[in-house]
Design goal:
The protein has about 240 residues and is mostly helical. The chain has a domain of about 70 residues. It contains 14 helices and no strands. Helix 2 packs antiparallel against helix 3 and helix 11 packs antiparallel against helix 14. The longest helix has 18 residues. The radius of gyration is 21 Å and the shape is elongated. About 35% of the residues are buried.
Length: about 240
């Protein structure tokens, strides 16, 4: 999602009052970048929080998009303002910061902001921590840990474009081991882990999962059969 695309989507949704507020806020930020510290938290009540329409769905809300445009307006001043916007912001404001990083000039400490987002208990913020900036800049281990956090938080992986390209043999194995652990506990396995597992299939772990179909504990048998059925469904 580019800044121009966000502006087009937002412009279609805004009422005249919201459009006027955004134009005024951007003009004020151009004159004095420090104004963003008050405009940023005001975006939700000024433009609303509804989801922006798109095909496929964008996942961006009106306040996300308005905040992203304010950050873009900062230009080179973003590096100075963004850390405080994240540090003092609520979960919605932090999500907007993390989602917007790929639209901005380099922000010192961006990796630390993304890491903080990934440690959150807010599922939307955790999902944002695996956005375009993170997938382009984080190392393999950081991506893997964020993926695991998403699974634990039940954040859908299918809504994270570009994730498949960051799969590694280690990540595939970690997810397969997690799937086996869940099956052994009689718990369901999220369907969207299978495409990442299949990028580099760990055959030994997958064989153990297959063997769970004959386990004497009924809950484990049922969990294994359900998981493998979803795996086969992902292959078709």
């Amino acid at each position: 999602m580019t800044g121009d695309e966000l502006r087009q989507l937002l412009d279609r949704e805004l009422e005249p009052a919201g459009r006027a507020w955004l134009a005024g806020a951007e003009a004020a930020v151009r004159k004095d970048p420090r104004v963003v510290q008050t405009a940023f938290p005001a975006a939700g009540r000024s433009v609303g929080r509804r989801l922006l329409a798109g095909d496929p769905p964008t996942g961006w809300t009106a306040d996300d998009a308005a905040r992203a445009l304010l950050l873009i307006t900062l230009g080179d001043a973003a590096g100075e303002q963004v850390p405080d916007l994240f540090g003092y912001g609520d979960a919605d404001e932090q999500r907007a910061v993390v989602r917007s990083l790929h639209l901005l000039p380099p922000v010192p400490g961006a990796a630390e902001l993304v890491a903080a987002a990934s440690r959150s208990n807010d599922r939307r913020l955790v999902a944002a921590s695996l956005g375009p900036w993170a997938l382009a800049h984080l190392d393999d281990e950081a991506v893997a840990q964020s993926v695991l956090k998403c699974v634990f938080q039940e954040v859908p992986l299918t809504g994270l474009p570009g994730l498949a390209e960051r799969a590694t043999p280690r990540l595939s194995r970690m997810l397969a081991e997690l799937a086996h652990e869940r099956i052994a506990a009689g718990r369901p396995v999220p369907e969207d882990v299978w495409p990442l597992i299949e990028r580099f299939p760990p055959e030994d772990t997958l064989a153990r999962i297959e063997a769970e179909q004959e386990h004497p504990v009924p809950e484990r048998r049922a969990a294994a059969r359900a998981a493998l059925a979803s795996r086969r469904g992902q292959e078709t």
